Amino acid sequence: MNALYKHRLFWPIASLLALIAINAIARPQFIKVTVRDGELYGALVTILKDSAPLMLVALGMTIVIATRGIDLSVGAIMAVSGAVALTIIDGSGSPDNLATVLIAVVVALLVALILGAWNGLLVTVLGIQPIVATLVLMLAGRGAALLITGGEITTVNSAPFKWMSGGYLVALPVAFLIGLLAITIMGLIERRTALGVLTEAVGINPEASRLAGVRARGIIWGAYMVSGILAGVAGLIYASRISAADANAAGVFIELYAILAVVLGGTSLNGGKFSIAGTVVGVFIIQTLDSTILFLGIPSAQSPVFFGFVVAIVVVVQSPRVRTALGSLGGRRRSRGTSGPSTDTVEVAR
Amino acid sequence: MLEVTGATVRFGADAALRRVDFRLFPGEVHSLMGENGAGKSTLIKAITGALALDEGTLTLAGETVSFRDPHAAQAAGIGTVYQEIELLPNLSVAENICLGREPRRGGVISARAMNARAHEFLLDLGLDVDPASTLGTHSLAVQQLVAIARAISADVRVLVLDEPTSSLDLDEVAELFRIIRELKTRGVAILFVSHFLDQVYEICDRVTVLRDGELVGEYLTRELLRIDLVQKMLGRGASELKSRDRLADDEPDAAVVLRARGVSSARGINDADVDLGEGEVLGVAGLLGSGRTSLARALTGVNRLESGVIRIESQDVRLDSPRRAMSLGVVYSSEDRRRDGIVAELSVLDNITLALQSERGILRQIPAARRRELAASWVEALDIRPPDLDRPAGTLSGGNQQKVLLARLLALSPRVLVLDEPTRGIDVGAKVEIQNLVGELADNGMSVVFISAELEEVLRVGDRVAVVRDGRVVRTAAAVELTADSLLALVAQPDEDEE
Question: How far apart are CA A59 and CA A56, in angstroms?
Fold first, then answer.
């Protein structure tokens, strides 16, 4: 029990379960999942489906944050990727052709990858602070997206494209499966290759890593490219959902929600140790909270206040000081951890 | 002035300190000695309020006190200067000195009053530094003295100096000692922790020795022979440095593994020539800022060359990154473990296998079982304590961090090992172990460049010694032909010979 309590995912998961429980008590049909035509439906399934864009962006953000960086441009990359794909589909004259949609998707993702590489270039080669480097694209990206769509909201009617957000595969929403695929790939890369530990090393101490022969620059650059391409996929799912490329609305504020998801999942903004599983839980907390607001019928004018209030509670409960206080309330007095003073010196050393 | 009785501190099940008594009188300089993990840092932290005592009492000027945090200890007159300089390099010297107690005029911080006050303290220390200049632009040594100025700028009754000399030069140490003597006459009680026995004997009146968290005893320095002190610290006869057969030539007689000609780099080394033979230890002696570190970094791909040629086994090579140098078997261990050596928050396991893993590449992960086995074998071979592979490396003592760093490099089976001050700031026991290790490695055919600020150490460990001064290699000679005095004369400026 004690080990469970100390696990770093304990509080994030507890918060998520508490949110679901509150919903279930308020309206029991929240946890009801029904099968219709071999497809799953229900509030929880909708959460899984709708969480896909944030999930993808937050996964990329996790890796970038692990390298001690941050990527503010993800929302803008979403807008660009949606604009590129829809402009190609719209201009092709055959929006229902699968080949057309595939080409559009591939080109959009290539553009997203290039934008990620641009961020990486600014950060690693030119040595610009990540927050500033990605701010450039955050501000300029939406303008570029508007340029691509000619300043209009491009709309298409394309069944294959719509399938990305609305389709089902083996009873599950395609959007969720895309998110699941991304989680699996990231998890496998972290476990089965040395990239996880090398990324942490670079995030904790870039110079020591370089002296140990780690390709620090390549790893950081790669992180921004991963973040770019994942944001590209997120942009496609978003555009598919509304069947339109809306450069002004796609992925607005998603960078901030993604950062929040990463932090809720227990990854420090100081870089270093990161947790993919934590980010996944963080995303589900945000998405569940989002649908709670709809579900409880909170007026839209008040929803940001409610959202902020709940997030504040979750963050406070997870803070080290409150955790220590709760810990000593719950059990016998624990000896002062050896990590206390040493983490302080680490902070100072930075 | 300060008395600690029955101090006990536990970390989980282990006691880092067991019923230790310690006293400090006004106007004396008292040294705390002990090996790594003896409990010195723990005792200091307890005195300075960074750590609470589980048992025992702390008495300051006759009153029993307990400090909630370092701030409370400071307010009570206990000033501390830590080994790792804990100042803010982006602020000015004056701001650093006055931080948290800035002179105010009508609620607003007065920059002029602050600079004036800081100037006074600096003059007190005989330090001619512009208080308005940014701290980070000064050398480590100056920063260390600023840290001391900060500590004594409050009304101190007790001054704790934890390894204050580890980044100072001979001149600067003399300067520091002048200041310590001055403070002593003002009645300040000074706790001085240093691994340099010479310094302890020069400045300290009394010594308290700790071993394995327990008190060994308290002695008057003048009544305690050095050999006895070391014996008390180690708890056994001082392990003798194993003797090696050493060469008496100025030139390496074995095959030259690494040859550098006319090497210059943007930072501090100019037209340097180095020859390193197979299985030899080349000691490098030089003052701080002489270019000794720049030389090491130029030879290992850390700093880029502006001109010059490096040949490894008769092949001209371009060392444009540490990674490239590693692939050629040339590895570098930094003088600053914390800044660019250890990855503090990663485990000992990850730290040891870091270089090997990155050499193999991201995709070819070393299997988990193999990684553990490998790391465990190095922990055992180098006697890294505590032998806990999953402990964050940053929580280890300095000597053990150095060993982890060595293990990381040795795991690559390098041909050329460049060690920049590997024994700085670590205790006598670990120092001897590392010196012995270097000898063994060389006997097994590895070539080692060994840099140290301690001239005696360079002479003891090196087969030959290269002297670096003002960015140049001014002389290379067989170690057996040099004495500490003749080496000192070479290291120091020729026109202003000391002594």
Answer: 5
